[in-house]
Design a protein that fits this description.
flat
């Protein structure tokens, strides 16, 4: 009888795995079809002349430009991989600075009321300002080099990192905090062993959001103030 139960469970598990795989393949197929359909419509619209290629090139034109930039420096003076590397250096520098400063700041603001009352008003002053709005000020003081662009990336990543970290540690289960205090843990021990682990999912969500924002910001920033990078390449091509 036990063998029959084990066999039934194994068969049920196998059937469940097959169903999940079929669903994944179904949704993957739908996603691929939608993307291909959009690309096809895009190609047809451009080829029919409904949109000027000066402002909106076709997918084949984009691929041709990418292939050309792999082996040619014209007209912006650099290969594709050089521009990618130039942008990546700026993105990672700004991103890591935002993480190193933003995560501890968000944790302390969310856990310690004094830090929250002292720092939060200052943080709220800069939070609504878009990253690109800092460009004129940054250019004025730092020019258009790597440092300037890293500061612009930092401002965008910093806000998202702090907010998500703050929200994560503020959402710590109060029951866990009470249990830790009942067992004799100090406030700092509770912060380290309960608060920080509880905030980790939101921290990584904030870092993920920050990275996406960083790449969008760097392209826009390089279009306005740069002599290399992906944004500069797009602008020149």
């Amino acid at each position: 009888m036990e063998m029959d139960y084990a066999k039934i469970r194994a068969e049920a598990r196998t059937a469940e795995i097959k169903t999940i795989r079929k669903q994944k393949m179904k949704y993957l197929s739908i996603s691929i079809v939608v993307v291909l359909l959009v690309l096809l419509v895009w190609q047809v619209v451009v080829k029919l002349g409904l949109v000027s290629t000066r402002f909106f090139d076709s997918p084949t034109g984009v691929v041709e430009t990418i292939m050309r930039k792999i082996s040619s420096k014209k007209p912006d003076g650099g290969y594709l991989h050089q521009h990618i590397w130039a942008s990546a250096k700026v993105v990672w520098l700004g991103f890591f600075l935002a993480a190193i400063i933003g995560i501890p700041l968000g944790l302390f603001m969310g856990w310690y009321r004094l830090c929250d009352r002292v720092i939060r008003p200052l943080f709220e002053l800069i939070r609504p300002i878009p990253s690109l709005a800092w460009i004129p000020i940054v250019i004025l003081f730092l020019g258009i080099g790597v440092e300037a662009r890293s500061v612009i990336i930092f401002t965008g990543c910093f806000v998202a990192t702090v907010l998500n970290t703050y929200t994560g540690i503020r959402s710590t289960n109060q029951t866990l905090i009470n249990v830790a205090k009942t067992c004799g843990a100090s406030n700092f021990q509770t912060f380290v062993k309960i608060g920080i682990p509880s905030a980790m999912p939101m921290i990584f969500a904030g870092l993920k959001t920050s990275m996406g924002s960083a790449w969008g910001t760097i392209v826009a920033a390089e279009m306005l103030a740069s002599s290399n990078g992906l944004g500069y390449m797009i602008q020149m091509n």
